[in-house]
Amino acid sequence: MLLILLLLTITGCSALNCVQIQPAQIYNGNIVYIPGGNGCLQLLPANYNCTYQILPPVNYNTGLYAKVILKNGLRGANDFMVVTDVDGKTTTMNNRTGIGGFPFEYLVFPGARFSIQVTTKSVLMNSMFSITVEYHNAPIGPTSQLKTGSEMNYFEMATVRDGRNVFSSRTFTDTDSIYMYVGRKSGGVITCWDCFVIDGTFMNQTRVFRLASVDYQVFNTKSHALTIIAFEDGSIPLVFNRYSEAQQYTAMFAYATTPNLPEYVDMKTFFSGFTEVLEVVNFNSTGIIMQDLVIKSDTCNAYVVDGPPNNSSKIIMNISNATMPKSFDLKYFSVINLDCDFVFGVKSYDE
């Protein structure tokens, strides 16, 4: 009896084929189970090697995103799976990661590339796995050209969260590369794991990053477009600069003000010729207060302008002779440091 059962098991396993998701299976609301079944772990044969591709479609107006649930039931010491995420990073799983089918979830946005390679070696070890793919509508957000002149380019991702769709996006374009900064604020750790930045558009994706990996570093595109994607609610304040603005300075960063408690900024000339810009934005209302200014250097060449750091913005305060606190009835301004060491605080008008 045991011999008969073993033969049936081996015969059933060997019939497993490397079958990709078919176009007729890719539509809103459909659920695909790989390699079959109902989402439970499925037995793997020996000498199996298959890379399952999950490629949600997209066009200029709409697309689909995929929710992928991977269950790892590998038992063989030499059996493994390799997950290639949408940002190109790979994770290798084996019989020591997620034993017992603990689910790993991934979100794959329209036009992205995601794959799972499943490999077993020559000895049948009763390894198991399961992939569940759920397809959902993903309405593509609008595309905006970056503003020119003295208007600051800023955007709060929370403003496009409508409470109906899990997926939301926004694309920005310009005639050259785009620089992006996440606005620092109180408790400013980016916790949105399922938020992404595309260097490009949905139809032409040059590079893909998780927003959490970009964090507060400057991000500049190789293309002339930048797309932000969010699958989660929450505040993501972003500031953009055109290449012609950013190339003039050694460093740039941004702050998103909050009321009541100021955020303190330390601006410093690290070496001869070092220049920097801080862009301050009140994303929620109008009015910014600068306070507690302390100049540490003997001379100070720094000033505040009423827009982004370009020739269209006007100087509204010289740091060297400023009196504090100073209230600005503005939504934004830039602090340009050409040669000075100083510290100050910024906050929104108190609510």
TrEMBL record:
Q: What is one Gene Ontology biological process annotated in the Swiss-Prot or TrEMBL record?
A: innate immune response
The signal peptide stretch is 1-15
One GO cellular component assignment for this chain's record is: membrane raft
Which keywords appear in this protein's UniProt record, sorted alphabetically? Answer: Signal
Keyword Signal assigned to the entry: answer is yes
Describe the location of the CUB-like domain by residue ranges.
Answer: 17-138
Q: What is this protein called?
A: CUB-like domain-containing protein
Q: Which organism is it from?
A: Caenorhabditis latens
